[in-house]
TrEMBL record:
PANTHER family: HTH-TYPE TRANSCRIPTIONAL REGULATOR, HTH-TYPE TRANSCRIPTIONAL REGULATOR CYSL
Family statement drawn from the similarity comment of this UniProt entry: Belongs to the LysR transcriptional regulatory family.
The protein's name: LysR family transcriptional regulator
Lineage, broadest ranks: Bacteria, Bacillati, Bacillota, Bacilli, Bacillales
PROSITE patterns the record matches: HTH_LYSR (PS50931)
Amino acid sequence: MIVDTLKVFVTVVEQSHFSRAAEKLNLSQPGVSLHIRNLENELGSKLLHRTSKHVKLTEAGSILYQRAKQILALYEEAKEEIHLLRNEVTGSLTIGASFTIGEYVLPHLLADYTMDYPLVDVYVTIANTEEISRGVRANELDLGLIEGEVEFPELLVAPPFAKDEMVLVAPNDYPLCSLAPIEPKELQDQVWVFRETGSGTRAYSDRFIMESGLRVKRSFVFNSNQGVKEAVMAGLGIAVLSRRVIRKELASGDLSEIAIAGKKMTRDFSILKDPKSPSTMAVNTFIRKLREQEKTNAAGSQ
């Protein structure tokens, strides 16, 4: 079926590699190569420049890639409309989520979503906010769930679906933990533990430090929430993390919270979607489920 071949072609382009495309599609690499060869023979044009490290689109390949994305989207729409005749939601859903959302919000949501819509194939990518935003912009992801500021505001699906409380945490023996709520100026010349550049959590930490006029004595950088937590528990320094990330550690006494006087530390959780891409039933039902769950969570925490 030509749709299958176009799907192989699009995956090769987006993965920039035959073997990675084969792994994602659960096909053999020779099988992927055969699809591409047959497509080039049918169109009478070379579609890809291939090297041992990556593939690159030819001019003809670029034209086909854009049209193939449209054809595949229309095919998915047609399938959904047909299945809707039987009141079924089908198709695929490719979600990208930043680390905090992907690790602490998405798993519970997907458990409910897949129970209600078992015919939808769900694929999840977890990366930092910047990488997820770029994935949505490149049409590699149907939806992006990110925290904090939006790099590409034209992709924003408003309003935010949740508020996220941020917490300044420290090792239990940290001097400031024994005090009542402190003024930000008391955090001068501290050692900090950060997420990597491109992370929504890192962006929030940088903004907090800048707005508070703080000097950083020294810093350590980790590319995961777990790494930051472990570093703080080991005594490397202090960090700002989502309360969702450190809830268990605060309850167990493995970490301590440093309260900041008169400062409300929150950020938005936002949904990114390219408005030019078709909004499938799988996408629409997921967004609705997401908003319903977070509304229920917010009501339960009051």
